[in-house]
Amino acid sequence: MRARFRGTDGWAYVVLVAALGFMLTADAALAAGNAVPPLPDRRPSPPEIASAQVGKPDHGAPPVPQHKPAPKPALPPLPGDQKSVPWTDDQIAAARAACDHALAGLKIEYTQLPPIRKGVCGAPAPILVKAIDGIAIDPPATMRCPLAAALHRWFTKVVQPEAEADLGARVVKVHNAASYDCRNRYGKRVGKISQHALANAIDISAYELNTGKQIVQAQSWPKLVPHTGTALASKSEPTTTLKTTPKTSAGRLPITMAGFAPPLPDRNSELDDTAKDDSNTAEDTASAPPDPAGLFLVHIHDRACPYFGTVLGPAANAAHQGHFHLDMIKRRKDFCQ
């Protein structure tokens, strides 16, 4: 009886343990089912959103416009690089006929050249001028015939008479610093086309006399320029008459020492006794005789104005310190500096 009880008691023990295990499992499941879920993270701020999206493609958002700098405008082509339109036969024939008429009876040694056309540069009937009324052009200059005719008048009516009056000699050669040259004014990348590009201009920088002496403009142009009163002379006037200054019986301009401007003071000098003493040099300069070569250059510059559309010399700008620029551009009023 005792043994059987023990056996029954053992089974009861097993059943009791199983029941307890089941109850514990059920309680755990119930606790898990009733557990409160964790709270979500706070909403990220805009900078955090931006930082999180760096490097991540967003196919839904429109692309952000990129502000690129405006491209620089293209530079215009140089005169020689522009579209070239050949001269027509009629243009060439008319230019050569006008050339023959302009040079008829003038003592000019020249060679007829073929038409020049490079971009917008050139001339339909250019000539290579070697000498004008016994004055050699060194080197020979390529130009249009109206310029050659104007040079002939200037040489014969101004240059030679002034050389004889101022220097007691005759000019036998002039130095051609530039004639035909396909470029803009002053050789700039952008700007108006030069009259040199049209074979309508010449730069003269030096004069050789029959005595062997050379007058180089860069060396002989006077620092104090006498006033001859001719810079405003107009083409409409006779070439033997000037506006404001009477001529001597020899037909040339008189120069008085009162016509010289006093030198400008040194802007860096201080107003001390030395500066005051230096100011007296204006009187000393005015009492000294003018250099004949300088007077010659001033005379032929001022009296060139009625013959050309443009006359530029040292008074114009630094680019013309060493030569006279002479061209035949058509203007309402001649430009003479």
What would your notes on this structure say?
- With 337 residues, this protein is an alpha+beta fold.
- It has a domain at 79-220 and 308-336.
- Helix content is 31%, strand content 16%.
- The strands form 2 sheets. Strands 1, 4, 5, 6, 7, 8, 9, 10 and 11 form a 9-stranded mixed beta sheet that branches. A two-stranded antiparallel sheet has the order 2-3.
- Helix 3 (89-103) runs parallel beside helix 4 and helix 4 packs antiparallel against helix 8 (292-302).
- Residues 1-6 and 229-287 have low confidence and may be disordered.
Kindly summarize this structure in a few lines.
With about 325 residues, this protein is α+β, with helices and mostly antiparallel strands. The protein has helices spanning about 1-35, 45-55, 90-105, 145-165, 215-220, 275-280, 280-285, 290-300, and strands spanning about 110, 115-120, 120-125, 125-130, 135-145, 170-180, 200-210, 215, 310, 325, 335.
Descriptive tags:
single chain; 337 residues; alpha+beta; 9-stranded mixed beta sheet; two-stranded antiparallel ribbon; 8 helices; 11 strands; elongated; disordered N terminus
* Helix/strand order: HHHEEEEEHEEEHHHHEEE
Overall structural class, as computed from helix and strand content, comes to: alpha+beta
Described by strand count, sense and barrel closure, the largest sheet is: 9 strands, mixed
Rg = 48 Å
Overall geometry: elongated
Quaternary structure = single chain
Spans of at least 5 consecutive residues whose pLDDT stays below 50 are 1-6, 229-287
According to DSSP, the number of beta strands is: 11
